[in-house]
């Protein structure tokens, strides 16, 4: 007999022969009794109307809930899209522009995609577009930097005060507030200030202070002095010198009873503050006081 | 039948019809499993509310098996160790002209059967009672339980076998 013959029997699916054999077994009587008694079994009462009522109620509650929820969901959808766009564009823009910056008393060496080299002086910023570099050698500069440009297409440095264009050369640019200086050490540099173009051959320096431009000589094949840890000045108003001191040493510089528009020629060390302070104060016959990271210059006669 | 296919369960009349046809079965199904009327009522409630929420996604011919699945999943993680004490509506106390001895014997047998049913494994008891009380075909039970008809026949066989062994004290 099949191993599930009891199930078949309950379902009246046994063949006559199987049924006859089953009836002969001694267990048959109990099975028959189970079948008969089980037919009297009933499940507990189920109140269908009550169940329907409570489902109907929940249904309506849920339906109204949907109306409350849906504007919020729509808002979420919009918010998600906006967030994605912002994140996406931020990511896109950030890959578009590579930027470097330096703090007070910090220099940075940067290699551009075409192996051109840039050394960034203290408190300066340099940015360029990596994606468009092949067609457009263009960098933005704030502050001071020395460029060694690899030979190639036009190379342009944009600053707030002027445009410097070269083909392949070495030059230094300093663009600070009301102060703009370009020094060419090799090759030819074109400087455009307010739409006016000036060609600057090697060994020349163009300086603009508060709108007044002056040309001066510089060393051919040289390097800006700050690369050898020294800041040099030639007839520069004292307050620019003090600003530079502040940048190089990350100190707060103040002057008392001193004419900061007087011109200064000389240089100071970018490594030794004591020495630098002396280099400025001695030739001008002024005194200085160093207190923590605060420097005060004052006139000798002052009490 | 044709009209049904265009109507979905979101239509009040279709939904009500499914409820009338299925609610009692779901109640019994969960009751046989756990022997707890409260749980069985909750399962009916939960299953039909879920069906309403998803009425657009459930085809009318799939509604029943959807309801069974929801009801079943509801207690999937409930501790099965709870002792089951089923009680069945008593029909044996009808007035008959049988002898008192016979009635007593009958009642004794019924008590034995009740005890035996309570000690059956949950799936065997559910299968046996759905078939015996609700008159569900093996194929229908197989659909509810999500197993093959063969497996249900096996369960039925084993259920009968252990009921008999319990009752005869083997």
TrEMBL record, chain A:
Domain named Protein FecR C-terminal: residues: 232-296
Limits of the FecR protein domain: 101-189
Keyword annotations of the record: Membrane, Transmembrane, Transmembrane helix
The UniProt record lists the keyword Nucleus: no
Molecular function in Gene Ontology: sigma factor antagonist activity
InterPro entries (UniProt xref): FecR (IPR006860), FecR_C (IPR032508), Ferrdict_sens_TM (IPR012373)
Transmembrane segments: 75-93
Pfam families: FecR (PF04773), FecR_C (PF16344)
The protein's name in its UniProt record: FecR family protein
Originating species: Maribacter caenipelagi
Highest classification ranks of the organism: Bacteria, Pseudomonadati, Bacteroidota, Flavobacteriia, Flavobacteriales
Automatic annotation (TrEMBL), chain B:
RNA polymerase sigma factor 70 region 4 type domain residues: 111-163
GO biological process, one term: DNA-templated transcription initiation
Short name of any one Pfam family annotated for the protein: Sigma70_r2
Keyword S-adenosyl-L-methionine: no
Record CDD domains: Sigma70_r4
Keywords from the named record: Sigma factor, Transcription, Transcription regulation
Coiled coil: none
InterPro entries associated with the record: RNA_pol_sigma-70-like, RNA_pol_sigma-70_dom, RNA_pol_sigma70_r2, RNA_pol_sigma70_r4_t2, RNA_pol_sigma_r2, RNA_pol_sigma_r3/r4-like, WH-like_DNA-bd_sf
GO molecular function: DNA binding; sigma factor activity
Ranges where the RNA polymerase sigma-70 region domain occurs: 21-82
Keyword Chloroplast appears in the UniProt entry: no
Annotated family: Belongs to the sigma-70 factor family. ECF subfamily.
NCBIfam families xrefs: sigma70-ECF (TIGR02937)
Protein's name in the database: RNA polymerase sigma-70 factor (ECF subfamily)
Native organism: Maribacter caenipelagi
